[in-house]
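Lay summary

Proteins are chains of building blocks that fold into shapes. Our project writes down both the chain and a compact code for its shape. Here are two examples, one after the other.
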Amino acid sequence: MRSKLFYWLKTYLGFSRKESHGFLLLLPFLGILVIVPTIIRQIKTSNSQDFHNRFMNQIDSMENAGLVLVKSPGPVFNPQDTVKKSSVDKQLENIQRISFSEADSIVLQIVPGIGPGSAGRIIKYREDLGGFHSTNQLSEVYGMKPETIELIWEFFEFNPLIFRKIKLNQSTIEEISSHPYVTYGEAKVIVAYRNQHGGFQSIDDLLKIRIFKVEWVKKLAPYLDLG
């Protein structure tokens, strides 16, 4: 049997006779490493079961003696005891939520993930737009991540506020194209159409300029005034 094992080790594993002897000496230790953890688990399981049985026997004995348990004699586990409040939750406890339209680049930095650079970009974009009318517009700011945007609305209230509009029948090409939604070329077409056909009677008149898409006009509409 021993010679067959040596032959197998040499043929399939390439062991020399010396390596085969060493491998056979190592086998008992490998077996112990495999068996010992299993035995330890069984002992722990057995001890836990014994403790549970003794505990339940004590409960039964007390109930048979006429005692009524009104509260668990064991420790009561409350999951909330192990829940640590996040740093965001702690910050929210200490601040008063104000309108997002009132926040400046300094106040915005209370939000995790917002530094001086991103706060400055948010404020600049809000000024360039003339105010936010939708929470989704914050995603248009360069570098803003969805998770950071969600945090912003935990720290600030959102109230739609547009504080500046484009006077469609009076603004110059430069004034119209200064808006983030309008390119210089689009502004030139708007002014040229106005000069040729007279003032716009409604925002929908922009759709008479057939190169403009309905989606773009609807996006721009909140920032247009016929004055």
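And here is the second example, written the same way.
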Amino acid sequence: MDDENTSKQPTAFDLIGGEPRLQALTERFYALMDLEPGYAELRATHGSTLDEAQQKLFWFLCGWLGGPDYFVEKIGHPRLRARHMPFAIGIKERDQWVACMDQAMRETGIPEPLRERLNESFMQTADWMRNRNG
């Protein structure tokens, strides 16, 4: 019996359901950003199309959640704060990002305990990304 395989705890990536479910989550996140008026300020921080941002978020989340590290392989170290400095991110944008992701997680069936855990991590990261007051 191989102890390494039997003792491995599932990652958040595993618990979500791997790439297909994570792809569905990122697609829903950006669809909601485009559709919901409550995310207008968040949407305004993005360019005219969301395809590139969606792909990069998918790559990032894969690695961040314990799956394949596509972002690092394709782009390099995430350097999240530095990469987001050109965009005005305040409390409103932070809150809209977290709310949009929470809605996307609910709508794509992310299990409640995992969704709650991820929401805490997303809020901490989103708050750290703020680069302006208000």
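What can we say about the second shape? The CA atoms of residues 112 and 132 lie 32 Å apart.
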